[in-house]
């Protein structure tokens, strides 16, 4: 089984990932995978089980690996590709869209994206002020969902102004996102540290 999840509602996507893969699954970063890794990932067996549960993040950004995916559609494992952004204009997508399940997790249209934009924009120059803005919405927001919105905003920011600071912001946010998923640190603390560190990037 291979499924492709994408979209900005990371909370619902995460819930579906856990429902399908369970709470104990392997996590791989797509950009770090090379072609020689693919047979081991998609066809290799574990010492403990014949069927592995694997989550691969941002696999489609790795063009050589993405192009070879069609060779591994018969994988015996449960694999979910979790994409921050999916380009439906590519030849790969068009070749695979009828062979794999592509599922979008989209936030409702009435989300206050303007507020997220304001907090992110403010944090780029004044982290402490951004924290004060954040305090006003924390009681009604989910930190994981909020982080997903920050990721969307950071990607838009980088697309509009692909500078060094915007690139560093994406890397920093990816680091905080990983910590949120793999450590027991309180999620809002990681969000707050990101906003503070964002203002120090040059």
Structure, described:
With 202 residues, the chain is α/β, with parallel strands linked by helices. 50% of the residues lie in helices and 12% in strands. It is built from nine helices and five strands; from the N terminus they run βαβαβαβαβααααα. The chain has helices at residues 10-21, 38-42, 63-68, 91-96, 113-123, 127-137, 143-160, 164-182, 187-198; strands at 2-6, 26-29, 53-57, 78-83, 101-104. It has a five-stranded parallel sheet, covered by helices on one side. Strand 3, helix 3 (63-68) and strand 4 form a beta-alpha-beta unit. Helix 8 packs antiparallel against helix 9 (187-198).
Summarize this structure as a short list of keywords or feature phrases.
globular; 202 residues; alpha/beta
Biggest pleated sheet: 5 strands, parallel
Distance between the termini: 43 Å
Tell me the number of strands.
Answer: 5
Shape descriptor reads globular
Number of helix segments? Answer: 9
Low-confidence stretches are none
Q: What sequence of helices (H) and strands (E) makes up the elements?
A: EHEHEHEHEHHHHH
| Fraction in helix | 40-55%
Structural class: alpha/beta
The pLDDT mean sits at 89
How big a fraction of the residues is strand? 5-15%
- What's the arrangement of strands in the largest beta sheet? 2-3-4-1-5
Global Rg: 18 Å
Explain the layout of strands and helices.
Elements: E1 2-6, H1 10-21, E2 26-29, H2 38-42, E3 53-57, H3 63-68, E4 78-83, H4 91-96, E5 101-104, H5 113-123, H6 127-137, H7 143-160, H8 164-182, H9 187-198
Parallel strand pairs: 1-4, 1-5, 2-3, 3-4
